[in-house]
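Anyone up for a design puzzle?
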C-alpha cells in the first residue's frame, strides 16, 4: 500500500507522460477505469511482479480503496491456496 501511495503522489505524472506513448497502456487504463475492483483482484492473483503493477495502478485512475480491497481479496485467496 505504501508503494502505491508513493507512486501515486510522487511519480504519477511522470509515469503517465511516459506510458501514454504506448497504446496498450491506454487500453489497460480504460479497462481499469471501467472495471476497477475485478481487474485489480485478477491481476493480483496472476503471477506478475507486484511492484510493476503497483506502479501501473498508481498511474491509473483506480482509487486507493479499490486498489486496497482488490489486493486484500487476492491475498486472501493466495493464502488459502498456498496453505492447502
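Challenge accepted. My sequence:
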Amino acid at each position: 500500500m505504501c508503494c502505491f501511495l508513493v507512486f501515486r503522489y510522487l511519480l504519477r505524472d511522470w509515469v503517465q507522460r511516459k506510458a501514454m506513448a504506448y497504446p496498450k497502456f491506454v487500453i489497460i487504463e480504460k479497462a481499469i477505469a471501467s472495471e476497477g475492483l475485478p481487474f485489480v483482484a485478477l491481476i493480483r492473483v496472476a503471477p506478475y511482479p507486484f511492484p510493476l503493477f503497483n506502479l501501473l495502478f498508481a498511474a491509473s485512475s483506480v482509487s486507493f480503496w479499490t486498489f486496497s480491497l482488490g489486493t486484500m481479496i487476492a491475498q486472501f485467496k493466495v493464502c488459502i491456496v498456498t496453505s492447502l
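A detail worth pointing out: The longest helix spans residues 64-83.
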